[in-house]
Design a protein that fits this description.
This protein is about 30% helix and about 30% strand. By secondary structure, it is an alpha+beta fold. It has two domains: about 30 residues; about 150 residues, Sandwich (Immunoglobulin-like).
Length: about 190
């Protein structure tokens, strides 16, 4: 009886170890993650509107057909980025992901409180290199620190009715994700 209990306990322990190892290793070895799927259609540091998802074909899994979506694959190796996403009349959100699909920041139209979501995206090192400018306060400029140099920005706008989809598509397609121009040295 004890022998069977030890075999059962050993099997459960081994199964748990294999399960945890698989859960930890598999996401890092997957080749068809969101970033890889978008490489063919989305140039770096450019916003690209995504086609409406269908049951047969969706570029990103679990896409909601009530949302118009756009993405920006970013690379901060050449410097910070400026993101400007106009707001739609219903709901707009911007989410930030690392290269390994880990979400690290999100903002929506209610938190933005303006006519557009405007922010600067940079690494921690780039943020530390910014000069202390007394004229620019934290309320004037939203800075998001990326934990990685490359990643993905997802911009979504809700179309509460099918007839409002063109308005939502226009909002996401006019978003801009471009390198920040260098500041003049004084």
């Amino acid at each position: 009886m004890i022998r069977w209990l030890l075999l059962l306990l050993g099997g459960a322990l081994l199964g748990g170890i294999v399960h945890l190892a698989t859960i930890i290793v598999l996401p890092r070895t997957a080749t068809q993650d969101a970033y890889s799927r978008l490489e063919a259609i989305a140039p770096v540091n450019t916003v690209v509107a995504l086609p409406a998802p269908t049951p047969e074909k969706a570029i990103l899994p679990f896409s909601d057909p009530a949302f118009a979506s756009a993405v920006c694959r970013y690379d901060l190796s050449q410097g910070p980025l400026k993101l400007v996403a106009p707001l739609s009349s219903a709901y707009t959100s911007v989410s930030f992901y690392t290269r390994n699909n880990i979400a690290y920041y999100a903002i929506n139209d209610r938190a933005a409180g303006r006519r557009a979501i405007e922010l600067d995206l940079m690494t921690v090192e780039q943020h530390e290199e910014l000069p202390d400018d007394e004229n620019i306060t934290a309320a004037d400029r939203l800075i998001v620190e990326s934990p990685t140099v490359t990643g993905l920005i997802a911009i979504r706008a809700l179309a509460p009715a099918p007839g409002l989809m063109p308005m939502a598509e226009k909002a996401v397609s006019t978003a801009k994700c471009a390198p920040t121009p260098p500041r003049p040295q004084s």
